[in-house]
Amino acid sequence: MKTTAVLTCVVAATAALPNSPGKSQKLPKPTLKHGMQGDGNPFRLHQQYNDKFKARDAVHEFYTAHSKYGVEATDAMRLAITQNPLLKHKFTLLRDGAVDQQGTVAARPVRPDYDSEYVIPVQIGNPPQTVPINLDTGSADLWVFSTDTYAPDVHGQALYQPALSNMSQLMANQSWKVLYGDGSGASGIVYLDKVAVGGVSYDKQAVQVAVQVSAGISADSASSGILGLASGRANTIRPNQQMTFLDNVMTQLKEPLFTANLQKGAPGSYDFGYIDHSAYTGDIGWTNINLSTPYWQIYPSGFQVGSENFTASRWTSIVDTGTSLLMVPQNIVDDYYSKVNGSFVDKDTAMAMIPCDAELPDFHFGIEDYRGLVPGHYMNYAPSQGNNCYGGMQSSDGIPFGVIGDILLKAQFVVFNRGNMTVGFANKKTVPNTQAKATPTPM
Ligand SMILES: *[C@@H]1O[C@H](CO)[C@@H](O)[C@H](O)[C@H]1NC(C)=O
Ligand SMILES: *[C@@H]1O[C@H](CO)[C@@H](O)[C@H](O)[C@H]1NC(C)=O
Ligand SMILES: *[C@@H]1O[C@H](CO)[C@@H](O)[C@H](O)[C@H]1NC(C)=O
Ligand SMILES: *[C@@H]1O[C@H](CO)[C@@H](O)[C@H](O)[C@H]1NC(C)=O
Ligand SMILES: *[C@@H]1O[C@H](CO)[C@@H](O)[C@H](O)[C@H]1NC(C)=O
Ligand SMILES: *[C@@H]1O[C@H](CO)[C@@H](O)[C@H](O)[C@H]1NC(C)=O
Asked: Is 136 an active-site residue?
């Protein structure tokens, strides 16, 4: 027992991190070259800690995840919104014409910012301009703040300046719009320019420049935009939909894949073009993605809470680095929190809550015969009020699929393979629970 009683909750621990690019750079093989441009060499990209990031708003994350995939609020969410003045202020109630007859109301956030504590450096233009961007496997637009962005919408973001790039070209008559139901969102025009991420670059990448950005998005000053790595079929450029950066550089990569090695309480890394076999333990469990959707959509084979038996039951889920929470069907949520003393659903937000010092059971999930482990303490998302914390697992009811977000991804090594259209999961060394509870330890 070397640690003193430290922090109980994830966000507090995260906020205490220094502004450093993280762990030492360790490439798996000495033959790998780092940072070479466009020659197809594998490379690793470290996340950078976003020190301007304010403590996470769990409620906001929950409602954003719902709005991101454009669906309706559940009854519980609707009730929460009508009863909670805070939410009423934050989220706009919308009547969807098509379902208005039944009185269905969709809830979408006024602040649809893609909060994330970490960003990666992306180089745009020639000579390169480095802007910090969030990598998001759940969308397909590469969009950035720029000198074309309406000035009052800019709040300290690093700007892409097309005029300073000798390769930038405005695409005539093309526009894009990421729209959230109440009209908030971002929209703008499109340039073609050189984009480089780590070791690969593409000369004619569609770079979506924001002209207008709604208030919520512009509040996150540390991120200049989003790099979406879902399939280009979800790209929002019109009339000529464009390919994503991943679509464009795929043939340059040594292997047509990238891996996410996110970490709890520390910057993680993304590797492009290779699998670092030293980054995980055991074997990788593979599963096919559904090719008729543009997302990394898979069908986990079941789940297990703590030491109970494994329940074989498939559910649909996308794998999304851009969502913080782990969102699963209600029956899994119910099963999980039935094993957590003191857990409850907050009527004001419809979110699952836990006592901050609760003993949380491990969560296991199936990918065919593979069993992934998420240690119990990874399931504590953020402090709320008093001794209440937000659970990291929340209901996906109201979304057409579950969302495997960062809560789970941080405990796994994940391969996004565009070569054979699979996602692979492997267990890895996870961080111990530093909660240093006063549990009597036999010594
Ligand atoms: C464009 O910029 C790059 C980097 O500064 C430079 O090497 C190149 O010569 C420039 N090309 C033209 C056509 O100006
Ligand atoms: C853009 O739109 C204008 C007006 O409709 C049209 O005259 C022009 O040819 C278009 N340009 C391209 C490249 O499509
Ligand atoms: C794949 O997704 C499509 C569209 O959502 C759906 O209709 C289809 O049933 C899915 N395939 C499988 C195997 O579930
Ligand atoms: C778990 O499975 C074993 C073997 O099938 C069975 O004997 C046991 O009763 C099950 N336990 C529970 C809690 O369902
Ligand atoms: C939950 O509470 C019950 C009843 O007080 C107790 O027996 C059990 O050990 C508790 N479980 C945990 C994991 O704390
Ligand atoms: C997909 O590719 C990976 C890595 O190239 C390989 O290990 C795996 O077996 C493949 N999976 C399937 C289902 O083809």
From this structure: yes
Cα R_g (the chain), whole angstroms? 21
* Closest ligand 4 atom number to CA of residue 308: 13
Among candidate residues 76, 122, 112, the one with its CA nearest the CA of residue 396? 76
pLDDT digits (tens, 9 = 90+) for 259-303: 999 988 888 888 899 999 999 999 999 999 999 999 999 999 999
Please give the full DSSP string across 328-366, using - where no structure is assigned: E-HHHHHHHHHTSTT-EEETTTTEEEEETTPPPPPEEEE
pLDDT in tens, 191-219: 999 999 987 899 999 999 999 888 767 77
Higher per-residue pLDDT: 344 or 46: 344
Q: Are 13 and 6 in contact (CB under 8 A)?
A: yes
Cβ contact 318:295 at 8 Å: yes
CA of 167 to the centre of ligand 1 (A): 8
* 175 CB within 6 A, ligand 3: no
- End-to-end Cα separation, the chain, in angstroms: 10
3-state helix, strand, coil in the chain (%, to 5): 15, 35, 45
Q: What is the pTM of this model?
A: 0.80
CA–centroid distance, 308 to ligand 4, in Å, is 8
How many CA atoms lie less than 13 Å away from 393 in the CB half-sphere? 29
Q: In a 3-state reduction of DSSP, which class is residue 303?
A: strand
